Amino acid sequence: MKFNLLFFVRLLLRHIGLLVVMPIILASLVFFLTKNEPKVYNSKARIYTGIASGSTIELENTKVDFRAANTAYDNLLNLIKARTTIEMVGLKLFAQHMAQDSADLKIISRKKFNELMETVPEEVKSVVVKGDIEQTYENFKTLKNSDYSNFIYRLLNFDHPDYSIEKITGKIGLRRISNSDFVDIAYESDDAAICQNTLLILCDVFVKLNADIKVNQSDAVVKYFERQLQNSTEDLRGAENELLDFNRTHNIINYYEQTKHIAAEKEEFEIKYFEVYRKFHAARAILENLESKLETHDRKRIASSSIMDLREQLSKLNFNISMETLGIETDSTKIEKSSQKVSKMMNEVAQLERELADQVDVLYQTDYDNKSIASTSVLSDWLQNTIDYEGFKAQLKVMEQKRLEFDELYQKFSPLGATMKRLERKIDIAEREYLSLLHSLGLAKLRQQNVELKSNIKLTEIPYYPINPKPSKRMMLVAAAGMVGFLLVAMTILILEFLDGNIKTAARAEDKIGVQVSSIFPVINLTDKKIDYDYIQNKAVNAISRNVLLNQFKKSNGEKPVVNMLFSTQQSEGKTFVCRHLIAKLCELGYKTLHVTYDESDIGVTGEDYQKITYDISDQLYKIATVEEFAEDKVVEGYKSFDFVILEIPGIIRNPFPVKLASTMDYTFLVTRANRAWGDADKNALALFNEATTGPEPTIILNGVKVLEMETVLGELPKKRSLIRRWVKKIVQFRFFNKTSVA
To answer: Where are the alpha helices (DSSP H) in 188-304?
Structure first.
């Protein structure tokens, strides 16, 4: 039998009673169990998130990040169903109900309120503040956190239908509308007021939690940058104060301008120094030359104490004048005073020069003679060069002091530059850090404003008060129960069919036993009047007898009779039943048949063509070598005149069988039932029998197969079918264009 659609249909039809009864039982059970099913109300709220396309103040970043948007939606939906959120909702709802003096149909039904008042212990009622939901909520929260065995903790964590976390979570439905910024939040309850108020509380709680999370995150960032900016400001101010103190300590106004000015002054001073130095040595050389031209007594005169005093005074005045004129002074008042002082000293210098000239004139007028004209000219030159020499000498002395001052100034400013560079670098680093933190703080505040803008979730559709309950699913559940019952039975039947280890079909017989099936015989059910069992039985007998007759012609020597042994491994396999029909058919065809059997019952066949020999089952069967030895006198009259010998032996597992005779059999047939399994004992017994026989390998006569299996031999069975059944059969076999004739 092939496992096609027709096979499955026929298999299910064989258990049609169970397939009908079980679904009816399950459907009826669900029908009565859901008889008092409570009504369910549902409500819905719609919120606008603004996550995907909401406004933003980040003008530079206008591109939509779909991955970030999806993550934000996942975070939002998870926040709505978070345990903390649902716990707050359940506790606020409980506080709202307990704060009522009586049942308010907009908040809780009268039945629910009365049940609640009966359930809540006095310990909880004592902390209720009537009319003040917030205070009641705070009191309940304190009581809940006091220990883990109080009523409120158990109310939230066990299975209360209205307040428990698990029940509320299971009745919340979340759905994002396509790719929009809208999210629908649905809730259902057996109380319309509780349904609406639970949604209202849920929306209020999660909107605040979402805002707190977003704002706290951005606030933490802003506060961090504010602290860092404050530290950076202090560092920058400290560095600037350090530079200011440094400048004050070293009298620096502008270091770079001052050093530039000092360098310029130094360069100009060096030029003047070398000019004075040159003039000083030139004046000294001229003075020495003039003194060398004077007579000895002239040199003594000019070296007198009065002249030397005047020269000393003149030198001091020139030194003081040079000190005043070569000073590096920037104060205008001091410059003006210095100018007045220099002017006064210049007058004194002029006076001293006149006095010096007068002294020289007095000295030489005393010794005047005509020969002294040349000496007077030399003295005049000496006087002038002496004045110049003393002036240059004083300037050079002053310049040498000033040169030392410049060296000291350079030694002072040289290390100050490195220190100032370090301080300025420190200020620059602090300033850049300050500017970077200031920029980051600005971005953080911008981000904070943007987060606050985006976290401002709007409730666009307020949860409505459901008036009508949801349509009952009772009939759907009843239908589903019926379908489940049918599928459960059908699957059980199919599984048992596939797991069934019985032989059942010819194909499975050949596969399990390992030998070829020669004939099959159906099980007869006389109560089924739709099938012509006489026809099927006759055809099955014809098939068995046809194999026996064909074997006669296959015998090589043509000797008679052809001995056919029918054996089985177990008892009650139907050998006698098969033999009766086979012998009756052979006798009907006119063949003379000898029936050798251990069964004494009458098979109902009479006439000259039939003869029966009955033997006893004993260990003597091992010794039998010929068919004639089964007779009492070991002789069968007219044995050679028989066309066929049908030898029936008992089950070979529990009974002995003629081993010697088996080796001489022309043909052997293994008769076995289709409604049993083929076990190891059967395999071993058949293997032993095959070792004993030397003739052709035995073939199987499969007895008791399902009538439908006969279609593999006879084709379509003769059966009374309505037009509808014929069409259904064609459909399940996919034989839509099948005809009964050529025309």
So the answer is: 192-249, 255-293, 296-302
Cβ of 149: how many Cβ atoms within 10 Å? Answer: 7
Cβ proximity of 341 and 323 under 8 Å: no
Helix (H, G, I), strand (E, B) or coil at 386: helix
Helices (H) and strands (E) counted in the chain, each on its own, are: 23, 11
Question: What average pLDDT score do residues 289-314 get?
Answer: 59
pLDDT for res 168: 93
How far, in Å, CA of 261 to CA of 140, rounded?
Answer: 82
Task: Read off the DSSP letter of residue 707.
Answer: G
The percent of residues in the chain predicted with pLDDT above 70, rounded, is 76
Highest average pLDDT, of 37-41, 164-168, 260-264, comes from: 164-168
Please provide the average confidence, as pLDDT, over all residues in the chain.
Answer: 79
Overall size of the chain counted in residues: 743
Q: Which residues 6+ apart lie within 8 Å of 378 measured at CB?
A: 290, 293, 294
Residues 689 and 662: beta-carbon distance below 8 Å: yes
* 370 membership: H or E segment, kind and range: none
Compute φ and ψ for 459, nearest 5 degrees: -90, 100
pLDDT in tens, 570-604: 988 888 888 988 898 889 888 999 999 998 888 88
Angle subtended at Cα 322 by Cα 317 and Cα 323, rounded to the nearest 5 degrees: 95
Q: How many CB atoms lie within 10 A of CB 102?
A: 9
With 0.85 as the threshold, say if the pTM is over it.
no
